[in-house]
Design a protein that fits this description.
By secondary structure, the protein is mainly alpha-helical. It has 16 helices and no strands. The chain has a single domain, classed as Amino acid/polyamine transporter I, CATH 1.20.1740. The longest helix has 34 residues.
Length: 432
Amino acid sequence: MNQLGTGLKTRHLTMMGLGSAIGAGLFLGTGVGLAAAGPAVLIAYMIAGAIVICVMQMLGEMAAARPASGSFSIYADQAFGHWAGFSLGWLYWFTLIMVMGAEMTGAAAIMGAWFGVSPWIPALVCVVFFAVVNLANVRGFGEFEFWFAFIKVAVIVVFLVVGVYLIFTQESYFMAEGFMPNGIPGVAAGLLAVAFAFGGIEIVTMAAAESEAPRKAIATAIRSVIWRILVFYLGSVLVIAFLVPPSSLGAAKSAAESPFTIVLGMANIPGVVGLMEAVIVLALLSAFNAQIYGTSRLCFSLAERSDAPKAFRSLSAQGVPTNAVLLSMFFAFVSVGLQYWNPPGLLTFLLNAVGGSLIVVWIMIVLSYLKLHSKLEVSTVRMWGHPWLPILTLMAIGALVLLMIADPSTRPQVISVAVLFAGIVGLSFAVK
């Protein structure tokens, strides 16, 4: 039987989880939630963080008991049958492919400006480079992700240290406009802005299948990732809330508008805009690299279950699913092309579907856990308060869906992902 490589260590998994969740969204998008909710956005982050912690704890318990590169797609298959595993696997594959295109487009635009060339040139160079990285031994991929994530984490740690110093030496804006300037509706809007901030850490459970001791590695990585991410996100938002008036913030369109740049600028750090541009590019490329990995392993897992062409089962001598990686690279090019072509309506629909797909994944993880829990062997990761806390988590996700439906700006995400998921479920009955 084909076996994937086993070159990843726990430190690789931990940093991969941090790197996947700490993306350009943290550096550019933090101001959106603060503008909507003021300092009370911390409540929104805590609610979103609590949901993600519970979902990851459930996924971690299943992954530690049954390590598999298909992760939640396989658990959905085991819980509800072929349609669930097929649909969830291909939905997440599609999501990562579209996000890859968006992130490479963003990184290439910045790099193109640096070198005075058309963005497609750095995009092509980066895609080829990461193809080589992902076609080599999985340990090489792990090392790249480790150092990419390490740089991002180091920047955030420096930001927090500088921020704490500035809080004691600069004017505070924490309560200048009130803790909850826009009331409960503002917090609700803030929750929608930050709900998916922690998305991406589920890739850790796929990668664990290629670690040297999957059960132990998953337990360590899950515990360290979710708490560190909460500290980094909450700490960064708290620093920004103290030092920058929320009403002056919004969606940052460039590194110069990033709340991180504004705060570091207060400390008169030279070249801060260039530094943040470099960090944002690293964040985008790191996520791109992790998503090539995630899509290729999902495709391999689907092929092993005959839910994708059998050609994608083939492995290199190093245990890398070569054809699956090449498929991901091909569609990465297609997705980048879509960003530039931007056909009327199509790209908007696809990106809206991406925005809502994480909700589907979370719901299916919780339902799979509730169905499989009694059949799981004792795991190194245990979900708390079974079955009441999982049920409460499911209700919280349901409330988030209702909030999205009620908000005109996020309603298209629910509609798009519902249409796409229904189409994939229908396809699942035709392909087996």
